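Let us work through a complete example step by step.
Step 1: write down the sequence.
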Amino acid sequence: APLMVDGLLAASLLANATVVLTSATLTLGGKFDAIARSVGLSGPEAAPADTPAPASSTPASSTPDGPPSSTPRVRSGAKPWRSLDAGSPFDYQRQGILYVAAHLPPPGRDGTSPQALAELLDLVSAAGGRTLGLFSSRRAVLSAAAALRSALDLPILVQGEDGLTSLVRQFAAVPESVLLGTMSLWQGVDVPGESCSLVVVDRLPFPRPDDPVVAGRQRLVDRRGGSGFAAVSVPRAGLMLAQGVGRLIRSDTDRGVVAVLDPRLHTARYGALIRAGLPPFWYTTDPQAVRGALARLAGTLPA
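Step 2: predict the structure and record it as tokens.
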């Protein structure tokens, strides 16, 4: 596999056509720069055709309300590009909560910690099921399933114990159920309504360090004097987390909580950058406030 595809795309695709690249999750820290560089758009953002490019070299900024408000002059030979964040029909501040369990220990290599499993149990109990659990490994899924099955009298659905389509159908049909899985569930699962009121992420989805392509890309950036972790792993984790978080609000009537059991999203320097690429949920690190909100959604506490 090629370490980088930017040159290939720039020469074979972008040089010969006008291209529209679109997805629900393309920004990191609210900007499109990382994805633009990765596909061969090496120049800064261009001004709209009817707007003269200013002499300033200040990076452009994209807003949900229209084209960039400030754009630099395009360097000679670089392909001009523009970005647009079209916004969302959902009122994320009102519909959802982003909870980071900042009191937990950082995840290690020995699997899910007892503290994280206890936190998961408390959250699922408060929600009365209604939980989609997104995990970084099969080992973490099995640990979570064992802990929940030993403590709760709820249907616990586990990826691998049935076909994925059948599991998602059962999860949608039985609101009190819990669906646990790995990367296959981070994208494409569409379960609007009360069956998915809680999305739990066990850890930030950084690429595996033994992935040869990712490792090669990081080494290349390091050799060029940059930070391979910041340039490769952080954007990958941010985009993947945004995909997973997007499983919660699927309609304008959905309500719920995204719970991230990895304190680095709150404490690490890159945590704020990754959070800026997520929907603008109400943000908290208070476990009691979140459990109360989940219990009200489940109808076990007064609204």
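Step 3: interpret the result. The longest helix spans residues 228-245.
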